[in-house]
């Protein structure tokens, strides 16, 4: 039985019973492109076998360095953007919930992210927050020249040197970058920083299970052994192209069928606030992989039940362009009883004896029915719990599903040529050497 279930039972009025089997031939072709390396972007498929084929020595070094950082730092400042940020951030949030950092009895190193915007206030406030505290830096960039993280690196490295002196600062800088190329690798070679490798055959948005995600996750106290084991399970389970067997491929086929019927926007939804960033990670994965050649599903997200009181109106009655994919946790980390109250002024006495998650799940069921009845197709990816093992599985599930989705839609799922456009304009405006005559 598959570890992770895809519930597509509510799609009956949107997808005819013959449509999924009719996708099988296309899915087989997409699968061959992915597995045999005959598809576009074939140099970027190393993530496919990463859970079974990773550098075990480097993995152990990550765990050792994580312990070192935990013992000498109140904060780890993780500097990176896009795939060099989103995977680590979503995993730390997923595994630890919303209040770990605020809990005064928790003396763990706090993992804070920077270099993912050009906000001066954010950088100023973070510098103020770490003032008087011990900290280390994890600079994450494959190219080593991305503007946002490079600016932040300068600023936090300067603070590190001021606080500890140039020699000790070197021991507090951990760099995750390309094995051979790029400005950061050059700096690592010159300065002797501890460093980790972003494998050549793995693009940013597929890199969360490399040191890009693993070091910050390990420093946060996340179990990276379990994370890799879960991904390994997914790698084993999700390599059969048969749509009756492979839930990730079936998800890819179903969203492709819906896309062709005019459902051009997909909302990834959760019912747990610690999954907000999961949607942000998924948005980069899908948006950069599929949004090109003037086609692709637009990835968006909603956090429920919260957004039922904002986006809910549009989803229920706005333009019929939306499809929804819910990631529903079957057993949240904790459940809470709804207490007794002598008075029933809040009209909640009928819920006494139940738990909050019982109500959350009934809300989910009610929303699925309302949206389906209102003309919005809804699928659900059911995950058993919020463990590191499940997260590893879920990461691989979406990675392989989106790669197949890209090939189904006839695009290269592993490049992102459109990202360069804003950079060129920004460099011209900033008078960057080499750009002034463009
Ligand atoms: O790791 P780098 O080279 O700083 O790039 C950051 C991000 O920018 C992109 O190149 C484009 O968004 C992503 O693929 C990558 O995750």
UniProtKB/TrEMBL annotation:
Q: Does the keyword Isomerase apply?
A: yes
Organism superkingdom: Bacteria
Q: What does the record give as the active site?
A: 288, 423
The family database entries (InterPro entries) matched by this protein are listed as: G6P_Isomerase, Phosphoglucose_isomerase_CS, SIS_dom_sf, SIS_PGI_1, SIS_PGI_2
Task: Give the EC number(s) under which this enzyme is classified.
Answer: 5.3.1.9
For the biological process aspect of GO, one term held by this record is: gluconeogenesis
Q: In which pathway does it act?
A: Carbohydrate degradation; glycolysis; D-glyceraldehyde 3-phosphate and glycerone phosphate from D-glucose: step 2/4; Carbohydrate biosynthesis; gluconeogenesis
Write the signal peptide boundaries: none
* Class in the EC hierarchy, top level: isomerase
Instruction: Tell me which GO cellular component terms the UniProt record holds.
Output: cytosol
What subcellular locations does the record give? Answer: Cytoplasm
Listed NCBIfam families: PRK14097.1
Question: Hey, which family's this protein in?
Answer: Belongs to the GPI family.
- PANTHER family the UniProt entry points to: GLUCOSE-6-PHOSPHATE ISOMERASE (PTHR11469)
- Name of this protein: Glucose-6-phosphate isomerase
Per the record, the gene is: pgi
């Amino acid at each position: 039985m598959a570890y992770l279930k895809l519930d597509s039972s509510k799609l009956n009025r949107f997808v005819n019973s013959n449509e999924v089997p009719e996708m099988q031939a296309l899915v087989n072709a997409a699968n061959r492109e992915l597995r045999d390396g005959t598809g576009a972007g074939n140099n970027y498929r190393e993530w496919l076998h990463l859970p079974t084929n990773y550098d075990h020595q480097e993995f152990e070094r990550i765990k050792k360095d994580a312990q070192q950082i935990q013992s000498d730092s109140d904060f780890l400042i993780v500097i990176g953007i896009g795939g060099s940020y989103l995977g680590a951030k979503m995993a730390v949030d997923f595994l630890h919930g919303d209040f770990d950092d605020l809990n005064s009895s928790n003396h763990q190193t706090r993992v804070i992210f920077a270099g993912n915007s050009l906000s001066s206030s954010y950088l100023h406030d973070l510098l103020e927050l770490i003032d008087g505290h011990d900290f280390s830096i994890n600079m994450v960039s494959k190219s080593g020249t991305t503007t946002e993280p490079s600016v932040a690196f300068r600023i936090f490295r300067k603070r590190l040197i001021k606080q500890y002196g140039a020699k000790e600062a070197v021991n507090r800088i951990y760099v995750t970058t390309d094995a051979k190329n790029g400005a950061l690798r050059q700096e690592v070679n010159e300065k002797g920083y501890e460093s980790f490798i972003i494998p050549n055959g793995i693009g940013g948005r597929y890199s969360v299970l490399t040191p890009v995600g693993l070091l910050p996750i390990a420093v946060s106290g996340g179990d990276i052994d379990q994370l890799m084991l879960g991904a390994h399970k997914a790698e084993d389970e999700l390599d059969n192209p048969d749509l009756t067997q492979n839930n990730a491929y079936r998800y890819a086929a179903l969203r492709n069928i819906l896309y062709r019927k005019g459902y051009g926007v997909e909302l990834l939804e959760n019912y747990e606030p610690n999954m907000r960033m999961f949607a942000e990670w998924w948005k980069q994965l899908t948006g950069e992989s599929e949004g090109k050649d003037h086609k692709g599903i637009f990835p968006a997200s909603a956090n429920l039940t919260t957004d039922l009181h904002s986006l809910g109106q549009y989803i229920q009655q706005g333009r019929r362009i939306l499809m929804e994919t819910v990631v529903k946790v079957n057993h949240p980390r904790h459940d809470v009883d709804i207490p007794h109250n002598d008075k029933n002024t809040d009209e909640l006495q009928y819920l006494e004896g139940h738990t909050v998650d019982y109500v959350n799940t009934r809300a989910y069921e009610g929303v699925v029915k309302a949206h389906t009845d209102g003309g919005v197709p809804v699928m659900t990816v059911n995950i058993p719990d919020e463990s590191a093992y499940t997260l590893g599985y879920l990461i691989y599930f979406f990675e392989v599903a989106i790669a197949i989705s890209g090939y189904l839609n006839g695009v290269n799922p592993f490049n992102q040529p459109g990202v360069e456009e804003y950079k060129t304009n920004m460099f011209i405006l900033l008078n960057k050497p080499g750009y002034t005559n463009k």
